[in-house]
Amino acid sequence: MVVNYIFYVKKTYILAWVTFFSAGINIILNYFFIKANGAIGAAQATTITFFVQFIIVWILSAKVYKMPWNLFKYKVDDL
Fold first, then answer.
1. What is the pTM for the complete model shown?
2. pLDDT tens-digit profile of 27-48?
3. pLDDT higher than threshold 70 for residue 78
4. Angle, CA of 10, 15 and 19, to the nearest 5°
5. Whole-number Å distance between alpha carbons of 44 and 29
6. Assign residue 10 a region: left if phi > 0, alpha if psi is -120 to 50, beta otherwise?
């Protein structure tokens, strides 16, 4: 869902870098998780990689396009 902001500002080269970075993480995690857990380890490594990829894309999309919300703009006293 958050990738659409990157498409909107036409900075899709960012997604290429995130994809290559995620593939590297997946290869490394697969090596260790498959050794430890077999086929289930491959699924675990992929799940972790997809979660990391989502967080990175979320952060980068917030940087390239001003979001209508800011979770940290309110102080505890303001709530």
1. 0.78
2. 999 999 999 999 999 999 999 9
3. no
4. 165
5. 9
6. left
Closest CA to 48 of 72, 29, 67: 29
Find out whether 18 and 57 touch, Cβ atoms under 8 Å: yes
Per the listing, tokens 């958050």 go with 2
DSSP string, the chain: -THHHHHHTT-THHHHHHHHHHHHHHHHHHHHHHHHHTHHHHHHHHHHHHHHHHHHHHHHHHHHS--S--TTSS-GGG-
Q: How far apart are CA 27 and CA 19, in angstroms?
A: 12
What is the distance between the alpha carbons of residues 36 and 45, in angstroms, rounded to a whole number? 11
